[in-house]
Structure formats: structure tokens, C-alpha cells
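Q: I have two molecules that I believe assemble together. Could you output C-alpha cells for the complex as a whole instead of separate predictions?
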Amino acid sequence: MQVTMTINGESVTKECEPRTLLVHFIRDIVGLRGTHWGCDTSNCGTCVLWVDGEPVKSCTMLAAMADGREVRTVEGLEQNGQLDPIQEGFRECHGLQCGFCTPGMMMTGRWILDNNPNPSEEEIREGISGQLCRCTGYHNIVKSIQWAAEHPAENEVKA
Amino acid sequence: MQTPAPLEEYVRATSVADAIAQLEKYGEDARLVAGGHSLIPMMRLRLARPEALIDINDLDELKSIKVEGNEIVIGAMVRHREVLDSPLLFEHYPIFRECEKVIADPVVRNRGTVGGSYCQADPSEDLSALGSALRGSVVIQNSTGTRTVPMREFHFGPYMTQVGDGEILTEVRFPIRPGAGSAYEKVERRVGDWAVTSVGTFVVVKNGVVEDCGIGLAAVGAEHFCVPAAEEFLIGKAPTEENLVQAATLAAEGCNPSSDQRGPADYKKHLAKELTLRALRRSVQSSQGA
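A: Yes, here they are, computed for all two components at once.
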């Protein structure tokens, strides 16, 4: 079947099977490898990307279900050559060790801040509670999201 | 790599009537998909092998939370996150917020739906305990019309409900009870897991007496997620600690948990009593007549 979706602002049309999972569509058919494919059981959250503005575990959605919808992946965080503050935060605070969980963590982190520009540590931890860091480096991930909250991009409105 | 078995058809339903027509067209091998957070994992494990998937995510008619007469009506496509965030539901029953806060995780709650949770009918489903506690009902539609089924008659057993082939659950309804207090208690092994045991309760206290109450339990083998004997004991009595303990004891006695990787049966019975007691205490405290 033919599936068309907007990925990071660009319309993409590709052929896939009705059973194709969104994570495989994005990685193997579109070729965007930033989104990682992890546990395959909706637990780990490294495959998190946005569909219509909300983070979704892309191993638990069919590509067909995203037909006509707007998808944002980790590659869509950077704007005009400028890293998103969430990306800067992970760099500044060493928010990753092996880097496997990072794309999902950053996509959820961006969403947390868009909904709550000044989250408490507890709110950040609750926000990423559906995602696993296999290095158990949660402390620095939380600090990275806090860093991004304290350093919003110029076009972001700080509440 | 877990990939679902080949799927012959994927269809987007455009209305409830269209969804029913598609279900009839593809017969017993068709499944509706809403949030997909139960069905797609089951398809990956090949526990479910539908030949046709009918996507109902576009059905805006099933996406509202509203009051109709003396009932709260939640559409089947309302997401868990919307239940968690709903001021209307919180105003009538704080249990909605307490229960949703411990269902899965925030990302899963963005997708999972109320109707999907009820139709999946997992024996550990938190919303089933809530629905049974509040004595809600579900509305099921097919090509000949609609019928309303009490939540306490909805399940035939684990993963089995009254929703048959060619049918769709369209909404769930909960009676409004002015002055009711409510609470939800859950023990889980880790954040976002299914319950080891969970209990939801509501209590209406009038003139120092329990006028009405409901107790719902998940994951402990309570038939229809409830133990009416515990409720019957408490109604008409003063909400004293002694009476609450007795009701909680009866609730635990009415459960039939099995030992599994989440814990031994006697531990789950202990939790059923303790969590019922805690939920009842808080329900009594927050009942406006208390």
C-alpha cells in the first residue's frame, strides 16, 4: 500500500506493507536512522517520535496509521543548522553514555518542555517514566532537560 | 524481530456506521484498532492475527467527555491522557485522575483509549476496576441499533466481553453521585506496570451513614472486578474504622487471585484488603457529607 506522511516538514510517499510498523518505515524505508528500534514491546521508548505533535512509541503503531499525519523525528529537532536546546542540554550535561535511548529521551524531553517550560525534577522524571536508559544514566538525562528549560531558544517563549 | 503477521487490509473508518459496515464486510477476522497499544503488541507476538484492521482514530464522534442528564459520558476514542487531565471528571470523581496517573506511562497514555482498554478486558485493567466500582455501563452498537450493558455484566472472563462480531463499543457512562468521595490505590512492581493488585472505591456519606458505596478490584480474580458482599455490608452503617476494616476483609475474601510472576496469591489477598481499606478511608474523608 502507499503511505504519505509529513516527516519533519517534508511530504514523503512510500510503498509499504499494511503490517509495517512505523519505526521500520521511518528507519528502513525512509532511511532516517536517528529513531532507534529497541525492545519491540512498547517498554523502552527509544523509538519515540512525534505524531501530530505528541510523542508516540513508533514500534506500537503501523505506518499505515500515520498515513496523512505529521511526524517529527529526532532529525527534526535541529532548525536551520541550530541545535535545539534539548540537544544542547544533552551535550552540556553529558546526558548520554551509550546513546541508545537518547533520541527517544530528547523527543519526550522536548514535549515535556513545550507543555511545561519550567518542570520540576519530579515532573521530568514522571514525563520520561515510559523510557529506559540501559546505562541507568537518568540523573544526567534529568539535568539535560533542566538545562534546556533554563536555556530556551530565542524564539521560544519562556513562561 | 517481531513483526505482525501479514495483514490483508487496512481501512480507515469514516464514521461509526462505516466502522460497523467494514466489520460486517470482513467478518470475524477483522479487528478495530484504536490506540493499538494492546492489539499491536499482540499482533507482533502473533497472539492476534487479524486479516483486516479497521482504524477508528478519525471518529471524532467518539472523542468527547460530557455530562448527559445525571450521567458522565466518555467516548470510546478518548485517550487516557484526556481522562487524566479532565477537570470535569476530577470534579465528580477524583478516582479518574488517581487511576489514570498509574496506568502505563505518559507516552502510552497519549495513544491508549478508554474504549480500547475496556474491550481488551485484561484481568489487570485498572479502568475495569474503576468502572465496576462506579457501577458504570457501556454502550455497544451494531447495524441494528445500540444496547447498554452494565459494567458488572460486561465481562465473560479474561479478555472476553459482550462486544461481539460486527459490534463497536461507542461510549462508557457513569452515574453522577453528588457528594461522593472516591479514591484509587495500586501496587505495581515498577512505574507503568500492570497491577499486582489495585482497588478503586467511592463512598457517599449522608448524616453519618454510608448511603452508597462501590468497590472495584483488578488483578485479583474478582468476578466482574467487584465483591458486592463487601458493599452490602457497608451500606447503611457508620463509616467507622471497624466497619471499613470489615468491608475490606470481605472484599479480600471475595477475591480469587492466582500466584504468578507478580506475586503469590496470599500476598495479593493481603493487598486486596489493605488497598480496599486505604481507598475506603480516603473516599470517606473526601465524601462531602462526612
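A: One point stands out. The mean pLDDT of chain B is 96.
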